[in-house]
Structure formats: structure tokens, C-alpha cells
Write the C-alpha cells for this entry.
Amino acid sequence: MASGEKRVEIEKELSFGPVHPALIEPYRIRLFVNDEIVEDCELNINMAYRGIEKLFDGLPVERALLIAERVCGICSHVHAWNAVRVIEGGLSIVVPPRANYIRVLTNEMQRITSHLILFGHAFEVVGHETFAMRSFLLRESFMDLISYVGGNRVMPSVPIIGGVRPRADLTESLKRVILERVDEFEEKYKGYVTRIIEDPLVMSRLTGIGFLTKEDAVRFYATGPTGRASGWDYDVRTKMDEYKPFEFNVITDESCDTKARIVVRALEIFESLKIIRQVVKSLPEGPVVNQSWKAEEMDFTTAYLEAYRGELMHSYALDSHGRIRNYKIRTPTPTNLAAMEHACVGDHVTEAILTIASCDPCLTCCTRAEVVDSGRSRILSDFEIVQKYGWRK
Amino acid sequence: MDNLLFFPLLLIISSVVAAAVAILYSLVLPGIERKVQARIQQRIGPPILTPGFWSVLKFGYKRRIEPTAQIPGLYKSLVYFGVGIIVLIFLFSTPYWWAVLGWGSVLGIAGLLKLEEVLYVLMGSQSQSFLSAGMPVPDLAKGSKHVGIRREFVEQHSAERALKMMAIGSLPFYIALLVPFAMAKSGMISSVVAMQNPAYMLTSEWWSVPLPSNPVIFTLPGIIAALVYFVGYVMLLNEKPFSILKAKIDLIEGGVLEYASKLRAYYYLMRNMLMFALSSIFVTLFIGIPFDPFMPLMMLLNIALSLILPVMLATLVAFSPILTFRQIYPAAIGLSAFGILALVISLGV
């Protein structure tokens, strides 16, 4: 504890997980409480290390990018897209505008499904099964649309290097279907959101807990809806060329509580619907893929993208044979984790779990290499990994 | 003299019939509740017999798993006590018990219900499931933020919550329970029924259905008390929105987590019986139709009307989140105030 910081007396520790029926991923929540009020929180996430970054090493870039999509089942498209953006940026590969539009379309459709999953999970945590089930029911329309575009509900594999798969090109009939479904969804979704907002019991559970000020959000680098719900107007999409043709608002809320995090996501869905309509109505003609590129040696290149939970970073280099070296992924959750721990303080125990859920953690995706050394564990830096294991040639 | 000779025999027969019918009915009741809830949520829901009858039967045949509670014998016996207490609560509301040592009174019911609440505190303090005690986690090896802090199991935390619920959560229920007795100006159930349904007290024909002429529920204090009773019913059943002592998200099942196989079957039986017993007592005290094993039509009417509270419960559960003590305390205080208002009005009546 830093000097000058307020010292708190802890009565006891309550810990949940890593095996717990309510935790959707294996992690451990340690709550240090007085009576039932959380005074401090510790999240231990390193329970399911998959070593996915190591899998990339030495693979031809085209093959490796299929693995990138499998980093996460909820935001599969955003990983696939950011993975191709790295090489497209590094080797200056031109992407046809039509392909960019389709990538944006898939991204926004999956953003809607991701936010609806959060609602489903958050309302399960709140204990409101009806809202949770309605959320999953609403999500189905976009899961179907994703499968119409990409051929698969969960792993649509839309982006490839230089564009999108020809299978994902939009036909006139599919454009009509998308517009119809979007209208239909919007009407139902408005009713759903209205019911949530007008439910005093649910609102009493969400309001006034899990405070995260803007200063803390910036300090912890809590990106995505978590930061925006603390009034931090930061969205990578506003800086991306792919999003320049589209008009949309960055939703922020100054309330800084759990309700704000839910409301920001709820309103972002309307913005995503707006973008989807713009994509379909103004889809440019032309090819969907540029195949005139060749994998060659590439220096470390990094690409950032606004994933559904916050800022996503992919970084890698290519050797002279076009094989991947030292793939590095930083999902939004690692930076949001500290914010979650901080936001819990002052909450009731049951509310603390809701606060963590409202930050939408995706823990297994963010678990990275760890070395346990003489009783201490620590995360290796890039330099240490290279020093210890060397480059994979 | 004949009556005195036959009374113990009639009491035993009445108790056996009442307990058997109540147990059988309570095996169906959760299924009805779940079905209503599912329909509200646009689901098909489980078959009617599954949550009550089949689950009890299934757990009854499962291989026995010994709990790792601190005193396993005590922990196991608590669930048997629970079933026994609830059967007694129900029996005390049936007519043949009204005359026995004053058990058929507000004290008999409230006292045993309080005892049933204490069971949850004891269960929580005893239980230490493998999810708490047997989970080797490297927290301390990794270096904790706070070293040497006492660790509490989720079950023990559930006991603390049960204590809070016992102290304040169930208060509105007991206040509402007093209202019919206050209106009858007596502590005995027989007086409450006699006030509402004098025809029942006078009839001796087993096939007749004497209906109440002056049900408590159709009076102003009665309807207020009935609403408070319903919320108290939800609190005593530990159902949403008042299921904080077994909130799935943190405490999983709380103190009853370790009940497996036959013990879980008994626990289900205990909970199902409580659901029915409190509904039946509501019909007896607020509508004036007692569960009389020797008047089958009256008994059926009581059973049919006993569906009111579980159906209302299912609706509430479908539309409610779990409330924390931040909401439960004000809710309990507000409901208690309504209960006291009903009590004051009823004393005036």
C-alpha cells in the first residue's frame, strides 16, 4: 500500500472459483470484505493458459490467420480482421472498398451479438432470467445474419489478406434480408431496452454501484464501453480509415456506474444498426479481394482495432519465407482487469460480481504466457521471451 | 366421553391423511410453479412432475455421498428436522390439531417457522463443500494483497445472510400473520376460521362445503395483510427476489449445497412442503377454508386455492432480479410498516 493511501481494515476474505457454477470461465475472485462490503478485490486469471501465441510461430501467414479467429468465440471476426490488418499495414496491401464495407458490416453485426451476450450474462448475474433469455432470443437474428454472410454463426471467417472471402460478398437478396432483419430487430430491441429501463427492481440493482471515475478509467486504460461509461470519449473506430465513410456517434455516459456500462452498450447497438444500414445501402461495386500480394519479410507491425470490449492489439513480424514470428495479442480485458478490481470496492459482495460482469471480461482470451519461478510468478516481456526461447526460424 | 375416547384416534387418522395428501400435492406444486414461470419466459418449461416428484424420486435412488460438514451427523439431521417441522406446521393448521395444547395457534405456527429459519443458519455454519474447503488454489503462494486474513466459506457466508434474513427479512410475514388473529381477537386458528366461516364450525356433514361468509381477505386490513403475507412467503421460501442467502452467482446454494442423494431429496421435500404449507395456511387464515381431511370437498377447495400463492410466486420470480441487502432492508421495513398499518386497522375493526 502506498504511503498516504487510506488503510482499510479487512474482516475476512471471500473467494469464488476457479471452479464455480456461476463463473463462465475458470478464474478466481478474491473479495476482501468488511461484513458484506468489498474493501479490496483481486482477480486471478491464469487458470486456462492455451499458448495460442506460440501456435502461430513459424506458420505461413495465411494459415496462421485462421488461428487468430479462434482466439475468442464471441469476437472471432475482430481477431481475424485485426490479424489481416497487421500484414496489410506492414506490406501496404490495398484492400478494395467493397471488402472494407463487408468487414465493417460483419464487425458491427458481431458487436451486437457480443453486447447481447453481455446483457444475457449480466442479467443472469442480476438474477433476472427473463431478461437474460430475451437477450439470447434477440441475439439469434444476428447470429443467423452472420451465418448468411460468412457461412458460420460463430467463426464466419470473413476477412482474408487483401479483402474478404468471395463467399462473403453480399448479393442483392441478402442485402434486402439484412435490411428487413435490422428493422425487425430494432423494433423488438427498443421494446426490450424500454422494459429494462422501466423496471425499477432491475434499475435499483444496477444504479449506484461499481463506480469507476474517468480519471481511473484513463489511469487503468479501461478502453471500450467500460471506459466510455466513465465518460472517456475513446473509440478506435473514430481513427480507422475503414470507418471514415460511416456516420455514427461514440456513446459516452458520465454516470460511471454499472448502469452506465449497460446503458452505453445498449445505445451502441443502435449505432451499430445505423452503420449496418449505411453499409448495405451504400455498398460500393467492385472486387472483394486483392490477390496481388506476396508474403515477404516484414518488420514488427502493430494494428489496433476497436473490439467489442475495448481496444485490441495484434502484432507480429514475418520472416523471409512469410512465416510468422512472435505473434503478440493484447485483448481489451488485460487493461480492463485493474479497472474491474478497482470498481468493485465499496460494493456489496453480490454487486461486486455484477460489477465485474458489467465490464465484460473475456479472461481465457487474455491469459498469456506465465513462468512460475521459485514461488513467484510473473509475465515475461517480449524481450525475455526472445532471450529465453530465441526466434523461431 | 365417546368423543374423548375417539379423539386421539381421529387425530392420528387426520394427521396421517393430511400429511400424505400434503406430501403428494407438494410433489406436484413446484412443477406447476415452474411451468407458469416458463410460460412467462416464453419457454415450454419442464414436465409438471419433474421438478417435484421425479427429482425427489431420482435423488432418493442416488448413491449416498457423505457431506464434509464440520459435524456431519448434525448437518444431516437438520434436513430431517426441517421436514418434521414443516409437517408439524401444516398439521397444526388442520382442524383436529386446533384443540391440542394450543398448538393450532399463531404461536404454534410462528414458533415453528422461526425454528425452520434457524435451520438455514445451522446448515450454513456446518457445511463446507468441496467448492470451498477442498479447492487448492495458489493464492497465497502467489502473494496476496492481504496476508493472514480469515477466509470464510461461501456456506458460512450464507449462514450470516440467513441470520440477517431471520432478523429482518421475515419480519413482515409474522406481522401479516397476526392480522387475522387480531381481527378475531384471539390467538387460536379455530377462532379465526369461526369468524370467517361460522357455517363450517356448525356443520358435521362430511360431504358439505360450507363457504366463508366473511373472509378476512375481503376486508381492508385483510387485503393489505394478504399482500404482505405473500411477500413474506417469498422471503421464507428464499425465492427471488429474496434469494440472497442462496444467490447462485456467489453462494451457489448456500448451506444446502452439500445435501446430495437422499438428503437432497429430503431437502426438496422440505422446501416443497413449505411452499404448500404456507399456501394452505394462507387459505385457512385469510379465506376461512381449512384443510379438513374428513371433509374431502373442503380439503380439495383448500388445495385448489393453495395454488394462488405459488402462481403469484412464479410470476414474481419470472420478473424479478435477486435483491441485495441494499434493497432488502428498505423493502422489509416498508412491508413491515404496511403490516403494522393493517394490524392497527384490524384492531380498530
Observations:
- The first helix of chain B runs from residue 2 to 26.
